[in-house]
Amino acid sequence: MSLKENLSANISDLGLNQQSEKISLSRKLALEALKTVEFPTVKDEEWKYTNIRPILNGNYSFKKPDATFKDQSIIKSLLIPELDSNVLVFVNGRFEESLSSIQEQDRSIFIGSLANIPENFTSLVDNHFGKLCTKEGAFTALNTAGFSDGLFLHVPKNVTLNWPIHLLNVNTCESIEPINQYRNLLILEKSSSAVLIESYHVIGLGSGFENIVTEVFVDENANLEHYKLQTACESSSQICLTEVSQKQNSTYTNHTISWCGKIIRNNLNTIHEGQNCLTNYFGLYIADTDQIIDNHTFINHAIPHCNSNESYRGIVAGSGKAVFNGKVLVQQDAQKTLAYQSVKNLLLSENATIYAKPELEIFADDVKCSHGATIGSLDKNELFYLEARCISKEKAKAMLTFAFANEIIEEIKIEALKLYLTERLEIKLNNVSY
Amino acid sequence: MLKITNLKAEIEGKKILKGINLEINPGEVHAIMGPNGSGKSTLSSIIAGKDGYDITEGEISFLGKDLLELAPNERACEGIFLAFQYPVEISGVSITNFMKSAVNEKNKYHGLEPVKATEFLAKMREKAALVGLKPELMKRSVNQGFSGGEKKRNEIFQLAMLDPKVAILDETDSGLDIDALRAVADGVNILKNKDNAFVVITHYQRLLEYIIPDFVHVLYDGKIVKTGDKSLALELEEKGYDWIIKEFQTLETSNS
């Protein structure tokens, strides 16, 4: 059964109640659209190097898992040590209130489930839902038609959250390979500020498929620091679309750290809708044997006087494969744009593959744009220097690789998170195939 | 302690070392001098274990072990230290982390426990002061943005941290001003004892005014063509290498 048929057959069992009329309508339209829209193949330029057939042909199930998961101690073990946060737990595609804890006291803030929004927020959701997903691809349509839940965040004007939000997405399926479809909607009003950490975890079988769509609205003067950690999702596959819209004087910073998963595809798109926006993208990917990690990023400079700054590092080991495509579009009106992009890759083995493509399209004439892409291997002289100081070749490789990757971790502003990822990165790099 | 016998080596078919014999005992300081391209750096690289050289003949024994059979890190753990002519920059690895890994790997090799953090930091401070390396450099990436003098002081600092049995200083004096030269030499003189040995590779006699050698060897065209005491270095400074080369060539012709 194809993914589409699979969804149609199971949609009534998904229990997709919805208070928002906009969402209900969007679901119907998406289900209709799915009849005609095709999933991408390697013949599509955007998907040339990432064959998603294993996902499409996978024996996944949309069925809601029967077993309930209430194990507080397991959730505790997944938290970031020493990080005080608002914890939101989604288990197998659904919000688990009993495992979550919101510390914010301000009642005007909403941090919760999109499947269960209070009545006073419905018009806000109606006005924003689906607005940024204009290019409806098959995965987006699949998500819109059948997402089970996701984060709805609303930070009102002039409010700064006291604690970061840690969004834990946990897959606990033992017997089936589930499809979890999350839909996140983030609205930051004028001069508000928030930090979101998304992390994905697998407990149990270790596989499955997650299809995630996130829409982010950052209003004037607002600031969102957004972390996505694909570092504990074992061998599940993920297709992620993050669409961001920024208004005047706003800042959006994204950190995407990926080293787990069978097939990972991250689409990260930002459009500027006001002057003086700042967009920062930082990314680190480590693809080892049998893994494909594909990051497609896009910054749409549509307005003058905006800055973007993008820095990705990739490590490919064993027979792993990584793809980076960084598109920066500077539209004709977007004078005085400053856009900087850098992607550096380290190949650790003969069979590792990396496709790195900076893609700059510049239609304005008074801008400063730069990009750089490198692919290399570990420096023999550096390795020998370490070996001549008692350090074994294996350890020397791990140290140099760590140093290479750590430049991205160093960009993380939350100390507890930085420490957590530093430790995990070290463990990861002691175990990749050099 | 370190014995090199009839060592011959090539790089990509080009003969560089053509039969080196050298014996180094504890408590000794050897200077190796010679014109450019005579094979000085090749000799030090081969002792330290750098790959890219074909050893066609000869052997190196170190404390009874066949040195050429050991990996570079094993040689270092056994007590060979090479102070590099051109220390590489390693971005993202701090000196502190680097030395901690080095000392712990050495301890592990000898079946010892990892070093305690407080003891280690105290030792770092002590040895850095010994060579005049600024403490704030310890947190910086290895050699990154260091001046020429700082890089060389850093080499001697690492030497002090690892306490080797045979230390080879490969043109440590090149690019040093007189203050740095003195600091490096003072460091070496403090570290020198009856159980260790130093091999100082240099072009100039200047460094040997501060580090007094017991033996001076002249390397020319892949061979040690003359060995003498410290006065040989002075003679070289005064007269250059030509007379030795001529003397050697005459000897070669008369032999054949």
Chart the SSEs and their pairings.
The complex is a heterodimer of chains A (434) and B (256).
Chain A: H1 3-10, H2 21-33, H3 53-56, H4 72-78, E1 86-91, E2 94-95, E3 110-113, H5 122-128, H6 138-146, E4 151-155, E5 165-171, E6 179-188, E7 193-202, E8 209-218, E9 223-232, E10 237-246, E11 251-258, E12 263-272, E13 278-287, E14 292-301, E15 307-316, E16 321-330, E17 338-347, E18 353-362, E19 368-376, H7 380-387, H8 393-409, H9 415-430
Parallel strand pairs in A: 1-5, 4-6, 5-7, 6-8, 7-9, 8-10, 9-11, 10-12, 11-13, 12-14, 13-15, 14-16, 15-17, 16-18, 17-19
Antiparallel strand pairs in A: 1-2, 3-4
Chain B: E1 2-11, E2 14-24, E3 29-33, H1 40-48, E4 54-62, E5 65-66, H2 72-78, E6 80-83, E7 90-94, H3 95-109, H4 117-131, E8 141-142, H5 148-162, E9 166-170, H6 178-191, E10 197-201, H7 206-210, E11 215-220, E12 223-228, H8 230-239, H9 242-255
Parallel strand pairs in B: 3-10, 3-11, 6-9, 9-10
Antiparallel strand pairs in B: 1-2, 1-4, 4-5, 7-8, 11-12
Helix pairs in contact in B: 2-3, 4-5, 5-6
Strand content of chain B: 25-35%
Summarize model confidence as the mean pLDDT of chain A: 93
- Helical fraction of chain B equals 40-55%
Residues in β-strands, percent of chain A: 35-45%
User: What multimeric state do the chains show?
Assistant: heterodimer
Supply the number of helical segments of chain B: 9
Q: H/E order of the elements of chain A?
A: HHHHEEEHHEEEEEEEEEEEEEEEEHHH
Number of strands of chain B: 12
The unreliable regions of chain B are none
Radius of gyration of chain A: 21 Å
Trace the largest sheet of chain B across and list its strands.
Answer: 6-9-10-3-11-12
What gap, in angstroms, lies between the N and C termini of chain A?
39 Å
What's the overall geometry of chain B?
A: globular
Q: What value does the average pLDDT of chain B take? A: 92
